[in-house]
Amino acid sequence: MKIAILSGSVYGAAEEVARHAQRLLGAAGLETWYHPRAGLDELLAFAPEALLVVTSTTGMGELPDNLQPLYHALRDRLPAWSGRPGAVIGLGDSSYGDTYCGGGEQIRELYAEMGILEVLPMLRLDASESVTPETDAEPWLAELIGLLRGR
Ligand SMILES: Cc1cc2nc3c(=O)[nH]c(=O)nc-3n(C[C@H](O)[C@H](O)[C@H](O)COP(=O)(O)O)c2cc1C
């Protein structure tokens, strides 16, 4: 199974989580693709069978600037990925209240528009609760690996 990992990050935490996810998914035998600065054409060339988006939230519930171009390109082009499995890891801070993990929520809406099926509830990593997002993501990633291998 070929899985593309996309990330949106301001200070680097989401990128670290994405890299860790790539290591674990790769070690489990999945074919991973993670190029933080790649555009839509490179992503399409990989022809992903599954999608994992790891994104923090900035501003008032917004996606980081470095994910915006790819997000808008996907919304404009809507590749025919309907029915493919997807999952989201949202990094945020619950002290922001209503906009907690708003960036991740925008990706969930994009998945819905594209017909991508969320195979696991979004993992929310709360910066006000923990400073070890990579290890915190491990049980959820193990569950994701199990679900993708079973398909
Ligand atoms: C200026 C600023 C605005 C933020 N706005 C939000 C927000 O609206 N909702 C949220 O859940 N987290 C918000 N956060 C928290 C970050 O998403 C969180 O610290 C995350 O771990 C940062 O990950 P990154 O290093 O990948 O950017 C904000 C952080 C900063 C500095």
Please state the structural category.
alpha/beta
Ions, cofactors and other bound molecules:
flavin mononucleotide
Query: Which descriptor suits the 3D outline?
Result: globular
Q: Give the CA-CA distance, first to last residue.
A: 9 Å
**Spans of 5+ residues with little confidence (pLDDT < 50)?**
none
The biggest sheet, with number of strands, parallel, antiparallel or mixed sense and barrel status, is: 6 strands, parallel
Strand percentage:
15-25%
Which percent bin holds the helix content? Answer: 40-55%
Secondary-structure element pattern, one letter each: EHEHEHEHEEHH
Number of helices: 6
Radius of gyration: 14 Å
- Average pLDDT taken over every residue: 97
How many DSSP-defined strands?
6
Helix-strand layout with pairing:
Layout: E1 2-8, H1 13-27, E2 31-33, H2 40-46, E3 50-56, H3 68-77, E4 85-92, H4 102-114, E5 117-118, E6 123-126, H5 133-136, H6 138-149
Parallel strand pairs: 1-2, 1-3, 3-4, 4-5, 4-6
Bound molecules: flavin mononucleotide (FMN).
Your description of this structure?
This protein is α/β, with parallel strands linked by helices. Helices cover 40% and strands 21% of the residues. It has six helices and six strands. It has helices at residues 13-27, 40-46, 68-77, 102-114, 133-136, 138-149; strands at residues 2-8, 31-33, 50-56, 85-92, 117-118, 123-126. Strands 1, 2, 3, 4, 5 and 6 form a six-stranded parallel sheet that branches. Helix 4 links the parallel strand 4 (85-92) and strand 5. The longest helix is centred in the first third of the chain and has 15 residues, at 13-27. The protein is globular, with a radius of gyration of 14 Å. The termini are close together. Flavin mononucleotide binds at residues 9-14, 56-61, 64, 91-93, 96, 99-102, 127.
